């Protein structure tokens, strides 16, 4: 009875798959709503009716609870919480990071989690804060790895997960990823990223996650600890994060905050409820504000929105349109856009996981020129032959006297007419050409010319494009002429 993970569909580094925990199988990407047994705005059995397949609760809180500790030990978590799905428990590391030593050792938390029937068990890792120096983070990572190995002496049936720590230091995140990979752990949370998300440091978040992913096994199921707001789920999924946990649905409700996939709003400032969930369709904004059950109703709405975004991401992975969703979500906040642009710097790493063909390519601005589909096409062009006199036509007009004719479509570049209906050229929608698009397409031309040393190249384009093309092809200016 262990944990296994099967990838069914991929897009970028995002995966739609099956996570098997014991005899239960759940779909990924996956949301784990956070449950505090003392404060349940939405009960676990109600979540189950909404389609929640797994949740996470805190072992430390159960261990210190006079009301729930003995019941959990006697009856097990599933009966206490009245939930049939998968239950994961956090170790108490969060409380330790906030309050210091909480008197709950690694051995104690692992044994306690096992005794109350947790199905995904977390060792007492150290959540290294972003302000820690390299040496401090290195020391804390060393302790975390020791504790993970210690936990394996207590639990060896595959239900133990292994957190990846290291602070904001990418080389330490890589080291942690490699250590965890060598332990053959299937379920791998990337921890201590909440401070980065709370302060909108998405650029650093991308670097941290991509560093860890570069060393973790491709078959590992990746849990991004504390990633609870739907506005950043698509970005995280594109990096290969499969599981998210959210207390935000309840915390935001207590603060009177109304979630949307684009961001959050203070309920008192909302005049309309732009959502199709049951709460929003049975209440006006004014009724929701004045309801004595406002906090609970708002938590319901926030959970609906969060679950809907997970489903939307799953569908986009199946359709091969995750890039479009990432682009759409990340344009809702400048810092998310920073994260998106940072992710595009990892094209080589992303390409290794991305699928070859997709449903479509929608050009959505200059960032689209850096997507995996474009960079892969530019590399593919190097393998195309172009013998004798070669024409690259920007206007699709027929011209005689050439041995090989290529057409041109930015941001990809030159393509053989026979490839007109194939991906990505045939399944791409682009607006009127802009400078960034032309620059990107010229990379394809450059690669074609450099890969065919003995050919004569001619380019047919409008006069207003010649300056831009010449600037991008200055390294091979002696290899082509305009016609």
From TrEMBL:
It is an enzyme of class 2 (transferase). It comes from the Archaea. The keyword Metal-binding applies. Its EC number is 2.4.2.48. GO terms for cellular component: cytoplasm. It catalyses: guanosine(15) in tRNA + 7-cyano-7-carbaguanine = 7-cyano-7-carbaguanosine(15) in tRNA + guanine. GO terms for molecular function: pentosyltransferase activity; zinc ion binding. GO terms for biological process: tRNA wobble guanine modification. The keyword Transport does not apply. The active site is at 90 (nucleophile). Keywords: Glycosyltransferase, Metal-binding, Transferase, tRNA processing, Zinc. Gene3D superfamilies: Queuine tRNA-ribosyltransferase-like. Pathway: tRNA modification; archaeosine-tRNA biosynthesis. Residues 14-334 form the tRNA-guanine(15) transglycosylase-like domain. Zn(2+) binds at residues 275, 277, 280. Binds 1 zinc ion per subunit. Its cofactor is Zn(2+). InterPro entries: ArchSynthase1/Queuine_TRR (IPR050076), TGT-like_sf (IPR036511), TgtA (IPR004804), tRNA_ribo_trans-like (IPR002616). Substrate binds at residues 125, 192. Belongs to the archaeosine tRNA-ribosyltransferase family. PANTHER family: QUEUINE TRNA-RIBOSYLTRANSFERASE. NCBIfam families: arcsn_tRNA_tgt (TIGR00432), tgt_general (TIGR00449). Exchanges the guanine residue with 7-cyano-7-deazaguanine (preQ0) at position 15 in the dihydrouridine loop (D-loop) of archaeal tRNAs. This is tRNA-guanine(15) transglycosylase. It comes from Methanomicrobium antiquum. The gene is tgtA.
